[in-house]
Specification:
Elements lengths: L4 H30 L8 H13 L2 H6 L2 E3 L11 H8 L4 E3 L13 H21 L16 E4 L21 H5 L4 H18 L3 E6 L22 H18 L5 E7 L14 E3 L3 H6 L2 H6 L13 E4 L2 E3 H4 L13 H8 L4 H6 L3 E4 L5 H7 L8 H10 L5 E3 L10 H18 L1 H22 L4 H4 L13 H11 L1 E4 L2 H7 L10 E5 L2 E4 L6 E5 L3 H10 L12 E5 H9 L5 H9 L2 E6 L11 H8 L8 E6 L8 H5 L3 E4 L5 H11 L20 H4 L10 E3 L29 E6 L15 E9 L5 E7 L6 E5 L5 E7 L8 E5 L6 E5 L21 H5 L9 H25 L2 H24 L6 H5 L2 H29 L7
Parallel strand pairs: 1-2, 1-10, 2-3, 3-4, 4-5, 5-7, 6-8, 7-9, 12-15, 12-16, 16-17, 17-18
Antiparallel strand pairs: 11-18, 13-14, 19-20, 20-23, 21-22, 21-24, 24-25, 25-26
Helix pairs in contact: 1-30, 2-17, 4-5, 7-8, 7-19, 15-16, 16-17, 21-26, 22-24, 29-30, 29-32, 30-32
GO molecular function: beta-N-acetylhexosaminidase activity
Catalytic activity: Hydrolysis of terminal non-reducing N-acetyl-D-hexosamine residues in N-acetyl-beta-D-hexosaminides
Organism: Bellilinea caldifistulae
Length: 942
């Protein structure tokens, strides 16, 4: 028997090693499932940046601070932009349509990619052809930032009008109330811009739009909405999509920090003033930016930088006067806002601060209200010393210079000179350059032109993702007025084949460049053509094309001024049963944009007894209550791209409903975003016990769907945890994080004491706990104003035992007006309660497994020794032990999905799994023996 001992020791050693390795792997896997994403250590990145900076000249360092623009598409060696990026080492450029950086439709995308390749290659080639003789400094290659502001909704918010996928405005995305839609749009935007060659995205806007009855903000549809929580959620999702679509090779610079949603004018034209306290800024304007700066959030949803707007804030700058600089030029205001958490941690970890355009009229008028002078060097220096790392220079030209390139070169020279003369300035430059280089290294990994430029083959995928726009349009379309029930009475049927329809469109056209022809963004026939395509002779013949007429707002305005001049319009309008308006927005430079209001106010007789339908393809808050009362139906579409025009046609013919909800306040219909995002007063708030997942000594149910509430046992001294279900707002969405909730704990009986526990929601759910101090009957309910009705939990501990009951009261009708929007999300108790159950296995489970497997293995070995031979008894026992241990380790690791029911069975799951593994191992050993016996001569025994 001794001849078997070496083999036995070897097998035991292998077994111990196998158990150790698999236990470590199982533990590691379990930890990985629950760990949060962490940021990579910075030590290696810091070292690489220091090595690069040691090789840089002062000119190359200060050049990295500038983000410039240029005219045209000429990037040859004798062009101004070549001199800026090669000779003056400027670190980035921004392409803009108003600078003629893009060519005519059809060639826009390929020519833009060609221009970007030329710019990046110029910088690379210059770094490879330096004088490398003794004594000369060899400068490192540093790729360019190539930036763009492409916000969606085509003109005027986009720079590229054709060739790319037409994506909706931010407000249209906000109207879906669905962050996954924001992520999908961001993904397409990031993928296509990166394929062209862009690596710097100036956006999205994280402004919280404030709309009042007396004034409307100038942002239009360039924001996700008016609720800070939802703007933050949509912003994070959009940023995540941008990073995913670009494969983390495009930096995202959110704007307009610290928020300009409450400003009353465009900061590009004049430095606006917002009189709000610092607390109000933190709760409203700063909240979305802080949400995208959170240190513990996944890196893909985290912005790489923020663009600081030219705006004054009383909460940051106290007594504001005409000479008070905007935040972008105020070092103390910038320091104050960047010391607030989480901005302070984000900035410390490498967040980049980008100035808004320093060549804007707002900056020029601040320094000289007459506009006669402009000291470019002083402006750039003040902006840099205020705390900006990257200085954005567009139309940055002094009155005495021939072009902006000349002005920029002088500014770069002045910065280089000051770098050499002023150590404090040089230190400040080095700090910003370090941030910029770290960001570029995170984008590209290493500085090689083949890492910086995307494969040319990716251009073939640009412009092929229209489905996402259609989905956003379907979910965003909103019936603003009247209610859905009232609309069914007003419009019981869609237009019929012989109904005459007249369309009035506030047309929008644009030019990709100053020498390009007009491109129709929304033409006079856009909506009519959509109706013909979807319901005309080629699509079932629901309408007769000859009964459709279309005119522009300019035509309508002309008719109102002189009816005889457009007599045909008057005839068509008089004969029409349906009058449909496509509204895009007000503009002081386009008097025709007021045509609808003029018709409603000056000639309402022209639309009496007609079905008047208005589709707002821009901001939905431009009409007042009196105007809206004259309409049959008023819809919000929020975007004018083709997918939304098609959606409007489908809504007109009642093929599609408009179930979205406005993300901003609309005073004309009494829709206040703060009110509608408060708890719905008609709901019964669910209330549950809030216990952790079952651990040892607690047997879980064998069903795969865990029960939302377990009936526990309580006694005096116990702490009872509670939580609500998802509390919904008046649009049917979960209430914003931070919504106040009060748990009301009433002690029934002689004492009659009442205790309130105030807390706030996270993900629509609030939590609290209460310690039982006396034997009594305790009644727990919850309120979140204006929602005052909840389930009631009663705990009776008077007799030393807990008797628990749950009451679901019937909500009483209240006078609170219900919203006119059909809810888009209806969270249910069942959906909310289905959560993943994770069982934590303890040392006792391990001991149970070892005893069971060890005893079973010994028994199997004994059987094998008696029935076959000593060798096969040992083999059977070892295989059984290995099978039992492996099965247990798979159970606790969570690797093997079919074992999930055993995992939820608690300790019995350990017993059953170990037994199955034990028998499986024995079975494998028996098959092993049978196979060897068949392969051996009959006279030989094992």
């Amino acid at each position: 028997m001794q001849k078997f001992f070496p083999s036995i020791r070897k097998c035991l050693n292998i077994l111990v090693f196998l158990v150790f390795i698999m236990a470590q792997a199982a533990l590691g896997t379990r930890q990985n499932f629950v760990a949060h994403a962490a940021f990579e250590p910075q030590s290696e990145l810091d070292t690489r940046v220091r090595l690069i900076m040691d090789q840089m000249s002062p000119e190359q360092k200060v050049g990295q601070l500038f983000l410039v623009t240029f005219k045209g598409t000429d990037a040859r060696r004798d062009s101004p932009v070549y001199k800026l990026i090669v000779d003056y080492k400027v670190g980035g450029v921004v392409l803009r349509a108003d600078n003629d950086n893009f060519e005519v439709a059809g060639n826009t995308v390929p020519k833009a990619a060609e221009l970007i390749r030329a710019l990046q290659n110029h910088v690379w080639d210059a770094s490879q052809t330096q004088d490398r003789s003794a004594g000369s400094q060899t400068l490192p290659y540093i790729p360019l930032f190539i930036g763009i502001s492409q916000e969606g909704d085509l003109y005027p918010n986009d720079q590229i009008f054709s060739g790319m996928t037409s994506l909706p405005s931010l407000m249209a995305i906000g109207a879906t109330w669905n962050p996954s839609m924001a992520e999908a749009v961001g993904n397409v935007m990031g993928k296509e811009l990166r394929a062209i060659g862009f690596n710097l995205y100036l956006g999205p806007s994280l402004d919280v739009l404030e709309v009042t009855a007396t004034s409307a903000n100038t942002l239009g549809v360039r924001t996700f909405g008016g609720d800070p929580f939802w703007v933050g959620e949509m912003g994070k999702a959009y940023v995540r999509g941008l990073h995913q679509g670009s494969r983390d090779q495009m930096a995202v610079i959110a704007k307009h920090f610290p928020g300009r949603g409450a400003s009353d004018r465009l900061p590009e034209e004049e430095v606006a003033t917002v009189r709000k306290s610092l607390d109000a800024l933190r709760q409203i304007e700063l909240a979305p930016f802080f949400a995208s700066m959170q240190a513990d959030m996944e890196s893909k949803a985290r912005v790489d930088g923020v663009m600081v707007s030219h705006i004054r804030y009383q909460g940051l700058q106290e007594n504001i006067r005409e000479i008070t600089p905007p935040v972008s030029l105020d070092a103390e205001a910038m320091r104050q806002v960047l010391t607030l958490e989480p901005a302070a941690t984000w900035y410390q970890q490498g967040g980049v601060i980008v100035s808004d355009n320093l060549g804007s009229n707002a900056v020029r008028r601040f320094y000289d209200p007459t506009g006669q002078t402009f000291d470019a060097r002083a402006v750039a220096r003040n902006a840099f010393l205020a705390g900006n790392d990257l200085l954005y220079l567009n139309n940055f030209i002094e009155p005495t210079d021939p072009d902006s390139a000349t002005t920029i070169m002088r500014v770069v020279d002045s910065f280089a000179q000051k770098y050499r003369e002023d150590p404090a300035f040089a230190e400040r430059v080095d700090q910003s350059v370090e941030r910029i280089l770290k960001l570029k290294l995170r984008l590209f990994g290493e500085f090689r032109v083949d890492r910086v430029l995307p494969p040319a083959s990716q251009l073939a995928e640009v412009g092929r993702s229209q489905s996402v726009a259609l989905e956003v349009a379907r979910k965003a379309a909103t019936l603003l007025s009247p209610s859905a029930a009232e609309l069914n009475i007003r419009l019981p049927r869609p237009p019929e084949s012989r109904d005459q329809i007249i369309f009035f469109t506030d047309v929008v056209n644009a030019r990709q460049c100053s020498t390009c022809g007009d491109q129709w963004i929304l033409s006079v026939d856009s909506l009519k053509n959509a109706v013909i395509r979807l319901y005309g002779p080629a699509a079932g013949g629901s309408i007769i094309q000859g009964y459709l007429f279309s005119y522009s707002f300019l035509d309508l305005n002309t008719y109102l001024n002189n009816p005889e001049g457009l007599a045909a319009l008057g005839v068509n309008l008089a004969d029409a049963e349906w009058v449909v308006f496509a509204l895009t927005g007000d503009s002081s430079t386009r008097p025709e944009s007021q045509a609808l209001r003029r018709l409603l106010n000056e000639r309402p007789d022209l639309i009496v007894n007609k079905k008047v339908i208005v589709f707002a393809f821009g901001a939905p808050y431009l009409l007042d209550a009196t105007d809206i009362a004259k309409l049959t139906a008023y819809y919000g579409l929020y975007s004018k791209i083709p997918a939304f025009v098609d959606t409007a046609a489908r809504i007109l013919f009642q093929e599609q409903s408009a179930n979205g909800a406005s993300p901003v306040s609309i005073p004309g219909i009494g829709y206040d975003i703060i009110r509608v995002t408060s708890p719905n007063p008609l709901q019964v708030i669910p209330l549950y016990f809030d216990f952790p997942p079952p651990t040892e000594n607690v047997e879980a149910t064998t069903t795969t769907t865990p029960q939302p509430t377990q009936i526990p046992e309580f006694k005096v001294g116990d702490v009872v945890p509670f939580r609500t279900g998802v509390i919904i707002d008046q649009n049917g969405n979960p209430v914003p994080d931070g919504t106040i909730v009060r748990f009301m704990i009433n002690t029934l009986g002689e004492s009659g004491a009442t205790q309130q526990i105030e807390t706030v929601t996270t993900g629509g759910i609030a939590r609290a706990s209460y310690r039982i101090t006396l034997p009594a009957t305790i009644e727990i309910r919850v309120v979140s104003e204006p929602a005052m009705t909840s389930q009631i939990i009663t705990i009776n501990t008077q007799n030393g035992e807990a008797n628990i009951s749950t009451d679901v009261p019937t909500p009483q009708p209240t006078s609170t007006p219900t919203p006119t929007i059909t809810p888009t999300i209806q969270p249910t108790e069942d959906v909310e309660e289905i959560t993943e159950v994770t069982v934590d296995y303890g040392f006792s489970d391990w001991i149970i497994m070892l005893l069971m497997v060890g005893g079973g293995g010994a028994g199997i070995a004994f059987i094998g020794q008696r029935r076959v031979s000593l060798r096969w008894g040992f083999r059977w026992g070892m295989m059984a032990v290995i099978g039992g241990i492996v099965a247990y380790l798979y159970l606790v690791s969570g690797w093997f999905v079919p074992l999930a029911p055993f995992e939820q069975a608690g300790r019995w799951g350990v017993v059953i799994t170990s037994l199955v593994g034990l028998l499986s191992g024995w079975g494998i050993g028996w098959l092993w023996q049978m196979r060897l016996q068949k392969a051996q001569p009959p006279n030989r025994k094992n």
